[in-house]
Design a protein that fits this description.
189 residues, alpha+beta, N-terminal domain of TfIIb, two-stranded antiparallel sheet, 29% helix, elongated
Length: 189
């Protein structure tokens, strides 16, 4: 939209006539800029969350409009980050809305060169079957002197810093209950 420019629309003239002598306010703001509104102003709701990238646990405010994430910003009420986010945390909206985001389970057959989509239920069954078989094959009930071990060396867990404390706690409990002793977390390394 082209607006006809007149002598009175020049910023220097607006500075002098509006009292904004330093040119830091409305005198230097264009009509287009005055008409802009932040994406956060039109959000239907704001949801509190935690940044998924590292173990710090910075608070985030997730702005949602029509069921879609439109913006993610630091949460000033967070005692951890006080409204600040690192560059990765600031860009986490792209993690949610990226066109390259995987939205289905993929499987590559042994010896295969291509990934193929499979049902999530099928993928979960395959993982569970392989987990239990590895646990069974690597099970050590006792040591060479007959002392009880009740552990498996066939499975291990490496947690990630993109999980929150609760998720890592549940993973630790699951693998410990399964008899695994090789349990580590990337956030601690």
């Amino acid at each position: 939209m082209d607006v006809k420019k007149t002598f009175l629309s020049w910023p220097v003239v607006r500075q002098a006539t509006s009292g904004d002598f330093l040119g830091r306010g409305p005198a230097v703001t264009s009509a287009r800029t005055r008409g802009l509104a932040p994406r956060t102003a039109t959000a239907d709701k704001v949801v509190q969350s935690v940044c998924p990238y590292c173990a710090v646990g910075c608070g985030q405010r997730v702005f949602v409009k029509d069921g879609q994430v439109v913006q993610i910003e630091g949460d000033p009420d967070s005692p951890v980050s006080r409204g600040r986010l690192c560059p990765k945390g600031s860009a986490s909206e792209q993690l949610v809305n990226s066109p390259g985001r995987q939205r289905k389970a993929l499987y590559r057959r042994p010896g295969g060169t291509e990934w193929e989509p499979i049902e999530l239920e099928t993928a979960m069954e395959m993982i569970a079957d392989r987990f239990l078989e590895s646990r069974r094959r690597g099970w050590q009930d006792t040591d060479e002197n007959g002392r009880p071990l009740r552990r498996t060396m066939g499975i291990a867990a490496l947690g990630g810093a993109t999980l929150d404390n609760e998720e890592n706690y549940l993973i630790k409990k699951l693998f410990t209950a399964a008899g695994a002793i090789q349990i580590e977390n990337q956030a601690r390394i």
